[in-house]
Predict the structure.
Amino acid sequence: MDLTKLTIQKANEGLKSREFSATELTRALLGEIEGRDKELGAYLEVNRDEALAEARKADELISGGDPVHYLTGIPLAIKDNILIKGRQATAGSKILEKYTAAYDATVIKNLKKEEAIFLGKTNLDEFAMGSSTENSAYQTTRNPHNPERVPGGSSGGSAVAVAANMALGGLGSDTGGSIRQPAAFCGVVGLKPTYGAVSRYGLIALASSLDQIGTFTKTVSDAVILFRGISGHDEMDSTSTPDIDYSELLVFDENRIKNLTIGIPKEYFVKGLSDEAARGVEEAIETLKKSGFKFKEISLPHTKYALSVYYIIMPAEASTNLARYDGIRYGSRSEAESLLELYLKNRGRGFGPETKRRIILGTFVLSAGYYDAYYTKAQKVRTLIKQDFDKAFHEVDVIFAPVTPTLPFKIGEKTEDPLEMYLSDIFTIPVNLAGLPAVSLPVRGREGKLPIGFQLIGRPFREADILGIGQVYESA
Ligand code: GLN
């Protein structure tokens, strides 16, 4: 049996029935990483010894008759902007080179309670700014379906690790699409939970009102397992919501799910959507229709402003979040004659071009005289975008949309033109502005072709609806 190809669910069954051990499973995945990751570049750091020690501990628990949780002994890949105590956390930036995390992110703490295994830290665009993982200060990650193509970003490393059987599941962060877009490009399931459902404590912040940690898995059932493992109230994150009863996720009620109405926003099926991408999502609609789902056309009229609003609010928040990186408390430090020179050198050398661009943009929109014209106005339009969704959810239960306007593009194709790169998030950004849950699912039946995804967007905290429809789609 090839253990690397297992889903989390199947691996859990195998571990429980002692068909194989967590150590065997971990070794198999480490072997796959050794064989394939030189070419793909998904991992920035592989924690071989730590992972094997965690596997041994899981095996002891299992053989000692302790309760085996869904994630006990399951090897995972973690985006390098999520802190694991004692391991590197670079956020893909030179300014955090050699930085070692002093504490566990809450999601990691939760996963440790279940005795999950952390194989290593995965590559990302610097501070999660990007859509191709080419903005990493360390390496370029390649799409396993065609290494000449990008895997998407910013969580490209975790997406590739799961897609190429170098982890059974992974964590990423999604501020404007960074989980759903790479999931679509790599042919895996990517879940961006409702804002507040998962603690952001220990996530290196990009834009705090938009960031959310989420999952990469091979199947929807695995997304349910991993999401349940990381979600829950956390007093260390003031925007974390009180505990939600997610038990419904585990009792899949097909009758209830099949009665949900799916909305199709006409604003998402426009010129920018390439023919190939459109064909892919239409196939998914056909499959869902055959499964008996009712579709209804809806309108989200303020969609056209989402990208502009995002590129004001996100850099505004990023510029303030990144103010803490002065090269004194974290990461590498330059020599200088004065304090000002030290800041200028550290930040000048430590940050890459995209990060600098956004700090400048953010500082500009927040500066006196421009604040109201840009930042305040963007916040108002953000409310209108959210209200579009609120209205739509009076008519439908779930919204269907494309994830990406194109198939995975070529490495280097969009690096010269930031605006062109920003456009690849046009379908994912509104969801973050509205704080909604959304899952990106691979269109099935594309073996031998480049992957393409579609997304299901739900009401706040209705992960059960989008994942339920996802389960029906998968079994169809
Ligand atoms: N690609 C988008 C950006 O560059 C989204 C990033 C993200 O979700 N972290 O900002």
Q: What stands out?
A: The longest helix spans residues 371-395. The two ends are 26 Å apart (CA to CA). The longest strand covers residues 117-122.
